[in-house]
Amino acid sequence: MFDLVLGTNNAKKLVELRLMLPAEHYTLHSLAEIPESIDVEETGETFRENAALKATEQAKHLGRWVLAEDSGLSVDALGGAPGVYSARYAGRHGDDEANNAKLLAELADVPPEKRTARYHCEACLSDPHGNVRITAGGVCGGVIRTEPSGDGGFGYDPLFEIREYHKTFAELDLTVKRALSHRSRALRHFLPRLRRLVATL
After folding, report:
1. Which of 44, 75, 76, 136: disulfide with 189, CB 3.0–4.6 Å?
2. Dihedral over Cα of 135, 18, 93, 34: its sign
3. Which long-range contacts link 35-40 to residues 24+ away (Cβ below 8 Å)?
4. First-to-last CA distance in the chain?
5. Are 94 and 69 in contact, with CB atoms under 8 Å apart?
6. Where are the alpha helices (DSSP H) in the chain?
7. Nearest alpha-carbon partner for 146 in 201, 104, 181
8. What rounded mean pLDDT belongs to the chain?
9. Which residues participate in catalysis according to the annotation?
10. Tens of pLDDT along 166-179?
11. Could you report the per-residue pLDDT of 81-135, keeping only the tens digit for each?
12. Nearest CA-CA partner of 94 in 174, 39, 23, 53
């Protein structure tokens, strides 16, 4: 069993990550289970830079293998915003309701055909010495609705519609979301490389 720390305090992200990482191969720990874990400031200019910061700084501090990810929403009509500021777009980190309200206000005069957007996810694995060993990314395209719909998911999920399904991420069953999401796409690239790495240790 490979011992792996999931470098996030976001409970809903943890649920998704745990579902995608087979428990028979990995012993998974969240930061909430590790009292000595630290908060890493997300000062990177890209999702990949932030993922690497969160993985390497936490790994060096704990002396353990850490998988961290950074993800967010890029809206074409807003020049790629909110981007790396997705979680704190309205000011306070993790205030989904305020972030969604600000996004809708910013897009108030934007017609439906120009409300295209993408969710991005970058995953990074650091060894206990703070060396990046694996990175992988995933992207999922969609459009931003004019009002929220659905009770599932988190972040901008109630506004982010998958065109093929005509549903938001918040309306989709978790199994379907796992198959389509930016996070699952990143991990599909990540997991085979992780298996190969673990086999060499």
Report:
1. 136
2. negative
3. 36/61, 36/62, 37/5, 37/61, 37/62, 40/7
4. 12
5. no
6. 11-20, 47-62, 96-106, 174-180, 182-200
7. 104
8. 92
9. 70
10. 999 999 987 888 78
11. 999 999 999 988 889 999 999 999 999 999 999 999 999 999 999 999 999 999 9
12. 39
Specify the amino acid at residue 14: L
Strand partners, 4: 28
Q: Three-state SS for 44?
A: coil
Whether the model clears a pTM of 0.70, i.e. scores above it, the answer is yes
Q: Strands 160-162 and 167-168: what pairing?
A: antiparallel
- CATH code of the region 2-200: 3.90.950.10
**Sign of the CA dihedral with 98 first, then 155, 68, and 71 last:** negative
DSSP characters over 135-178: EEEEEEEEEE-SS---SSS-TTTTTEEETTTTEETTTS-HHHHH
Q: Which two tokens stand for residue 138?
A: 């995933």
How would you label 156-173 residue by residue, b for 16+ Cβ within 10 Å and e otherwise? bbbbbbbeeeebbbbbbe
Question: In the chain, what are the domain boundaries?
Answer: 2-200
Residue with tokens 């010495």: 129
